[in-house]
Design a protein that fits this description.
Blueprint lengths: L4 H10 L8 H5 L5 E4 L2 E4 L11 H4 L5 H5 L11 H5 L6 E3 L2 E3 L1 E7 L2 H6 L5 H11 L5 E7 L7 E6 L2 H6 L14 H6 L5 E5 L1 H12 L12 H16 L1 E7 L7 H12 L7 E6 L2 E6 L4 E5 H5 L19 E4 L7 E5 L2 H12 L3 E5 L4 H17 L21
Parallel strand pairs: 6-8, 8-9, 9-13
Antiparallel strand pairs: 1-2, 3-4, 5-14, 5-15, 6-7, 10-11, 11-12, 13-14
Helix pairs in contact: 10-11
Length: 394
Amino acid sequence: MHPSFKQMMNEVVQYGSCCECGSCVLVCPHNVIDYIDGKPKQVAKATAAHDFCGISEGIGCDVCAQVCPRLGGREHQLTDSVFGEAPDAYRGAFGVYRRIVAARCTDPEVLARCEDGGVVTGLLAWARRNDVIDGAVVSTIDPSAPCAPVPRAVTTVDEIIASASSWYTYCANNLALAEAEKLDLNRVAFVGVPCQITPVRKMQTADPGYLVNGRKKEKHIERQTKFLKGFGARVALNIGLLCSEVFTFDGLMRDVIERDMGIPLTEIKKFNVKGKVLIYKTDGELIEMNLKQAQEYARPECHHCGDFSAELADISCGGVGAMDWTIVILRTPFGEEVFDRATADGVFEVRPMDEFETSMKVLLRLTRKQRQRVPVPPGRADTFVRPLGFPNPH
């Protein structure tokens, strides 16, 4: 009943649905796979097939496959294991939630860096100042490569604020949980797009009992259990970013923006997407780009994702349908508590969603569109089930 390494390498990587989150590489207890060119690759035995793992086919393991967001239960199938019965929460078209509001950070330094309302950065900074977390996993800019985000574990408020902004190209944030372990961080806020939140939740909810199969020494079971559960156990708060797709760095940034449009990447301050691509330059100039042109460079792997609103997060955030405000979906009691405490301290200005009707319409439309677009993997038509009301596409 548990997916295997062989399935992961064939039904996900070879099939083309691997989202490149790197979670399988992160949790591999036996150094069988490495993260190479954005994908997991079998490196334990050069002469073996790409889908061969001697541990999996010997004493048994497959820890990697348990956290893959494209295998096993998809987001809507993990709702009960993440949220429980949640009698005081709603179960809407965009997942379980307690409240949904629009918010904007009151810190001018945060607003100057962010795309929309700065809620994620403002919340992380407040949580670190108040010792709610001891660090955060975020994406930051590589000093040697302008506009190229890299995953990192940060521990100071200054580092958190410096990490503000989204660059709309993929960054494997899950890999930075290894850095969080090295720093001995035990109350981490993890920030990621939906396909990165899902593997963290799988780590947190996975039952390691399947590892006991009568063929292993106790030390093997302990090691495999540690890798399956340990990284997720460090995450205290999951903050999901609304996401329909991201773009390839070489295609959009280097080929179109830098080469064709003649905008040096070193002169770009931040990006945003609001029905069009907004490019903010360091000199204050705003340049607009047609979104359809940018979508020609969307990663094909993104089209295998059916989760627009990070349905398994504690808090989901995005600027959908709104300028200068963040739409905030509060999903768990802890997520709601942290947000409300920060709001009470004056960190956010908050408005009700009846003032943002367009945002609600766009949120619902993109949620439905994304669930319906996911192709059914070969041979899995009988088991690949969408939520009620979201039929398979024709």
